[in-house]
Amino acid sequence: MAAPVGGRGKRRRGGRLWRALRANPVSLVALVVLVLIVVAAVAAPQLAPFDPTAQSLRLRLRPPSWLPGGEPGHLLGTDALGRDMLSRVLYGARISILVGVLAVAIQTVIGVSIGLLAGYYGGAVDDVFMRLADVQQALPFLVLVVAVAAVVGPSLVNTVLILGLAGWVTYGRIVRGQVLALMQQDFVTASRALGGRDVRIMLRHLLPNLVAPITVVGTLTVSAMILVEASLSFLGLGVPPPTPTWGGMVADGRNYIVNAWWVTVFPGLAIFLTVLAINLVGDWLREALDPTLRSG
């Protein structure tokens, strides 16, 4: 006996997503904005007018081209080293989205695996994993990440691994709770009675029924990881220069906020729009996939 997830269920889920999106124009706009940001990040080498690391002290702190004194061709102005802000914002999007997606992927693999094992086997396995989760949750996430990053040093790989390994607890607890509820369902009992192996039951019957909550949590967590990556880069513990990152760009412009506001405002605005768009899309997914939030 198979779990109650199949082709017809996937079509119904797709229909719910589309109906929820049509009924919520704000989420539709957010989805469009998010797609544009992702496309801009992927196509940064083609869209960026200049090399994001190329310096020109002759052009340092020039305002955007549409303001008095602006340098033609530099649509968003230049920073303290004469680097083009538009190019740096576009390339910074690649780092933020890459770190967010990869970190969430690592968190999902670890958290879902631990949640499945803890919920399915229970007993000592459950106790060990949940006490480990308790210990990790006792430490504030950002403090833990900053402390580890300060020890291992700044790099793209270290940032992804730190965020990925430190953020599995949410997934583990959610999946464990869902598995405990699913274990009481008839299709799991029938599969066990027919001699189904543990791995088959977890992968074939339990995991497909966890797609909705995992998708919602993963979407919302991407925005949190982007903010944490920006915080680390702001502190000099994330992706090191000269690689452009939004957090690093905000940090570079903090000493020029009065006379050269664009150095800080544009990367800060990029962070704001990206995180807001992801959160709105996540809310749409939650309302569409969570049966307790649907009215019909």
Describe this structure in words.
The protein is elongated. The chain is built from 13 helices and no strands. The chain has helices at 7-22, 25-42, 44-47, 85-121, 123-137, 141-152, 156-166, 169-182, 186-193, 198-206, 211-234, 246-253, 262-289. It is 69% helix and 0% strand. The protein has one domain (7-293): MetI-like fold, CATH 1.10.3720. With 296 residues, the protein is mainly α. α4 (85-121) packs antiparallel against α5 (123-137), α4 packs parallel to α8 (169-182) and α8 (169-182) packs antiparallel against α11 (211-234).
Describe the structure using short key phrases:
296 residues, mainly alpha, MetI-like fold, 69% helix, elongated
Judging by the overall fold, what is the CATH architecture? Orthogonal Bundle
The computed structural class is mainly alpha
Proportion of beta-strand residues: under 5%
Query: Which sheet architecture does the biggest sheet show?
Result: none
What is the CATH superfamily label? MetI-like
How far apart lie the N and C ends? 28 Å
Q: Spans with pLDDT under 50 lasting ≥5 residues? A: none
SSE arrangement, N to C: HHHHHHHHHHHHH
Domain module count: 1
Radius of gyration: 23 Å
Helix proportion: 55-70%
Number of H/I helices: 13
